[in-house]
Design a protein that fits this description.
Keywords: Acetylation, Isomerase, Mitochondrion, Peroxisome, Phosphoprotein, Transit peptide
Number of strands: 9
Bound molecules: ligand L4XM7KOE
Family: In the C-terminal section; belongs to the enoyl-CoA hydratase/isomerase family.
Largest sheet: 6 strands, mixed
Distance between the termini: 25 Å
Strand order of the largest sheet: 1-2-3-4-6-9
Low-confidence stretches: 1-18, 104-121
Mean pLDDT: 87
Pathway: Lipid metabolism; fatty acid beta-oxidation
Strand content: 5-15%
Catalytic activity: (2E)-tetradecenoyl-CoA = (3Z)-tetradecenoyl-CoA; a (3Z)-enoyl-CoA = a 4-saturated (2E)-enoyl-CoA; (3E)-nonenoyl-CoA = (2E)-nonenoyl-CoA; a (3E)-enoyl-CoA = a 4-saturated (2E)-enoyl-CoA
Enzyme class: isomerase
């Protein structure tokens, strides 16, 4: 990786020696990186990081991270490899690299970077409202609908809005073959230099807010699990009112494999739903359930053949959405009483604090590093 970084930095340097990117070009490129539709991959992200640091701070001037701080060590190595490359050259190389990542059709229509942010940002989470139903769709099919940090925040916002809109219920589903592969593991690799503890704290705050919004959601909340579900996309199901699943869906919570621990109140809801014996096998040993098994354990309301899922489920939901909305909300609040919600908030807080510490553990960093280097898959 270091050789690639050095080679590319030198190549871009030689090729563009006569050009000079202005500070404004650089600032725009920094904004454009955040708007990229396609994930450029870890190698490019590391290069961008190194060039950004060189352009803004000059030669690497911070101590080498510890041996177990894998991610920061890769980043440090890449920055350090740029040696004494002048700041202006690093700035130009950064701008060139970013423009090479933007398809020409997009570059011409993009205009001022700030103006399209919202539009592009909302592509990964699509929210629509029709027939009394607000639909929230995980829409990153090429990444198996893995949930980025930004998506957590968008979903939190979408739920807060849906709780006040005039729809009768809210339905989650996924686009493509997966419902969702859970937390996007690259969320862990975008650590701003240095303060990994602060980063983990911010992650825990985002997660806590996200789960709190599910706990407090006042209207019927339905999941249409169109395919395999992993991690947090499974655990949140314990906070839904109804879960319909395709017979192709699977339910997998590989927390121990990832050096992590349960979230979304599943350490409380799963034993309550399926009994401790079955919940332990899922949450501690990461046993993957088929749709039929998840139905038998009470996590899923009903399983449909994949070929008829969409037709049957949406027809049923449209009919349900015509029921008197206040009656449905009041029934929900009786079932999920205020004391139960209080308990769920306390569980959520504890799970988030536990995860915050886990994310800094050698076990977790090692598992994420393995996934990133493609040695390990579930
Ligand atoms: C400090 C952190 C701040 C974070 C902010 C808040 C964090 C809250 C965190 C809450 C805790 C959540 C826990 C979980 O959800 S644990 C579960 C995590 N998920 C996984 O471990 C799944 C990993 N993915 C896989 O094992 C396989 O991809 C999978 C079995 C799902 C599919 O395998 P398949 O062979 O069919 O497909 P590919 O692997 O080729 O996948 C296609 C592309 O999609 C990318 N992908 C898939 N899943 C993820 C993922 N979870 N994260 C990132 N990327 C993912 C995969 O890399 C492929 O991409 P490329 O085509 O670019 O290679």
């Amino acid at each position: 990786l270091l050789q690639v970084v050095r080679f590319l930095a030198a190549r871009v340097h030689l090729g563009r020696a006569t050009m000079r990117a202005s500070q404004k070009d650089f600032d725009n490129a920094v904004k454009q990186v955040k708007l990229l539709k396609e994930d450029p991959g870890n190698e490019v992200k590391v290069k961008l990081y190194a060039l950004y640091k060189q352009a803004t701070e000059g030669s690497c001037n911070v101590p080498k991270p510890g041996v177990f701080d894998f991610i920061n060590k890769v980043k440090w190595d890449a920055w350090n490899a740029l040696g004494s490359l002048p700041k202006e050259t690093a700035r130009q190389n950064y701008v060139d690299l970013v423009s090479s990542l933007i398809p020409s059709s997009e570059a011409s229509s993009r205009g001022e970077p700030g103006t399209q942010e919202k539009l592009l940002a909302s592509e990964d989470v699509v929210v629509t409202s029709e027939d009394g139903i607000t639909k929230i769709v995980f829409n990153r099919p090429t990444k198996k609908n893995a949930i980025t940090t930004q998506m957590y925040q968008e979903i939190t916002q979408a739920l807060k809005t849906a709780s006040k809109d005039n729809s009768a219920m809210t339905v989650f589903t996924g686009n493509g073959d997966y419902y969702s592969s859970g937390n996007d593991l690259t969320n862990f690799t975008s650590t701003p230099s240095g303060n990994i503890e602060e980063f983990a704290k911010r992650g825990a705050d985002i997660l806590r807010d996200f789960v709190d919004t599910f706990i407090d959601f006042p209207k019927p909340l339905v999941a249409v699990v169109n395919g395999p579900a992993v991690g947090i996309s499974v655990t949140t199901l314990g906070l839904f009112d109804v879960v319909y699943a395709s017979d192709k869906a699977t339910f997998h919570t590989p927390f121990s494999h990832l050096g992590q621990t349960p979230e979304a109140c599943s350490s409380y809801t799963f034993p309550k739903i399926m009994g401790p014996a079955k919940a332990n096998e899922m949450l501690i040993f990461g046993k993957k359930l088929t749709a039929g098994e998840a139905y038998a354990q009470g996590l899923v309301t009903e399983v449909f053949p994949d070929s008829t899922l969409q037709k049957e489920v949406w027809a049923r939901l449209k009919a349900y959405a015509k029921l008197p909305p206040n009656a449905m909300r009041i029934s929900k609040s009786l079932i999920k009483s205020s004391s139960e919600r209080e308990k769920l908030h306390a569980v959520n807080a504890e799970e988030c604090t536990t995860l915050q510490a886990r994310w800094l553990s050698e076990e977790c960093i090692g598992a994420v590093t393995s996934f990133m280097s493609r040695k390990a898959k579930l």
